């Protein structure tokens, strides 16, 4: 049987090609690594606090909503100011709002502060409106409190 060997230069070219393809594949796989999973406790605490705040707003319990705020946020917002902000946000709709279950969570963002536990977006819907509150939850002396509120959806 006759065996034909490719010239040496062809083998080198194939080897370089395979090496290049392998290096590119390894480089690309590093780009698509799965993001680290959020701390489950941070997510639970943040989502729970944010959802409780949203539920207090839609049930018109602005005293409870105010109690969920950090000390500094309580100085910025009275219960009456929370009521007004919620009314302004939903004024174009008809009827009461409801927390519809859509929640987004982050535990890392560019302006995160050292005591922050997490960031949450909670959707609120009603007849004729779709809105949301976005909050930053902070650890204040061992209790989860809201230090920042953004009213309305982006």
Explained architecture:
By secondary structure, the chain is α+β, with helices and mostly antiparallel strands. The protein has a single domain (40-151), classed as Nuclear Transport Factor 2, Chain: A. The chain contains 5 helices and 4 strands. The chain has helices at 8-31, 40-58, 62-67, 71-76, 79-90; strands at residues 94-106, 116-127, 129-140, 143-151. It has a 4-stranded antiparallel sheet with strand order 1-2-3-4. It is globular and about 40 Å long. The relative contact order is 0.16. The mean pLDDT is 85.
The rounded Rg comes to 26 Å
Low-confidence stretches: none
H/E topology pattern: HHHHHEEEE
Strand order of the largest sheet: 1-2-3-4
What is the correct CATH architecture?
Answer: Roll
Mean pLDDT: 85
Secondary structure tally: strands? 4
Counting structural domains, the number is 1
What is the helix fraction of residues, given as a range? 40-55%
Main beta-sheet strand count, sense and barrel state: 4 strands, antiparallel
Distance between the termini: 74 Å
CATH class designation = Alpha Beta
What is the assigned CATH homologous superfamily? NTF2-like, domain 1
From the spread of the alpha carbons, the general shape counts as globular
CATH fold descriptor:
Nuclear Transport Factor 2, Chain: A
Q: Briefly, what is this?
A:
Helices cover 44% and strands 30% of the residues.
């Amino acid at each position: 049987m006759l065996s034909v060997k490719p010239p040496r230069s062809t083998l080198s070219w194939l080897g370089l090609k395979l090496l290049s393809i392998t290096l590119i594949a390894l480089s690309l796989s590093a780009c698509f690594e799965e993001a680290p999973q959020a701390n489950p406790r941070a997510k639970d605490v943040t989502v729970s606090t944010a959802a409780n705040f949203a539920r207090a707003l839609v049930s018109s319990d602005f005293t409870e909503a105010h109690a969920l705020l950090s000390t500094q946020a309580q100085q910025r917002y009275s219960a009456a100011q929370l009521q007004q902000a919620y009314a302004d946000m939903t004024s174009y709709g008809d009827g009461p709002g409801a927390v519809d279950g859509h929640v987004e969570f982050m535990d890392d963002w560019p302006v995160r502060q050292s005591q922050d536990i997490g960031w949450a977006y909670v959707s609120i819907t009603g007849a004729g409106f779709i809105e949301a509150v976005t909050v930053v939850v902070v650890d204040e002396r061992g209790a989860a409190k809201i230090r920042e509120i953004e009213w309305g959806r982006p």
